[in-house]
Amino acid sequence: MPDVASESPRPTGSIHHLEIWVPFLDRAREEWGWLLGELGYEPFQEWPTGCSWKLDGTYVVVEQTDATTATTHRRTDPGVNHIAFHAGTRENVDRIRALGAEHYAAYLLNTDSYEVELVAD
Predict the structure, then answer these.
(1) Cβ partners under 8 Å of residue 66, min gap 6
(2) 87-119 as b/e, with b when 16 or more CB fall inside 10 Å?
(3) What pTM was estimated for this model as a whole?
(4) Are 96 and 87 in contact, with CB atoms under 8 Å apart?
(5) 119 falls in which pLDDT band (50, 70, 90)?
(6) Residues in a beta bridge with 47
(7) Which of 31, 21, 56 is nearest to 41 (CA)?
(8) Angle between helix 25-38 and 90-99 (nearest 10)
(9) b/e for 38-53, b at 16 or more Cβ within 10 A?
(10) Pairing state of beta strands 115-119 and 42-47?
(11) What is the mean pLDDT of the chain?
């Protein structure tokens, strides 16, 4: 993966990147790509086992690796429960939620049980 360290410094404590190991890359590319695109992320990197999207100095990676020990993500197990993104106005949260009408409120759950929360300003 290319190094993004050459960009201007970000505030200490801000997130540099998020890497999500997924059981099925094609499905993750489609589902995460859709959501991240709606939030303003642009495609960033591509390699045989993964891809990423970038917004300003932060990027999100999805990768299918042989190092995973299961093909099911259980957000109720120890570890990350969900990710929360700033999503702009309440109207934008409602707009994105309407595009994923089968989801309740501002929480989106993808096929592999990863949950994302959209936070209005």
Answers:
(1) none
(2) bbeeebbeebbeebeebeebebebebebbbebe
(3) 0.78
(4) yes
(5) low
(6) 50
(7) 56
(8) 150
(9) bbebeebeeeeebbbb
(10) unpaired
(11) 86
Partner residues linked to 108 by β-bridges = 116
Higher per-residue confidence, 35 vs 102: 35
Query: How do 17-21 and 115-119 pair as beta strands?
Result: unpaired
At 61-100, the pLDDT tens digits run 999 999 998 888 888 888 888 898 888 888 998 888 888 7
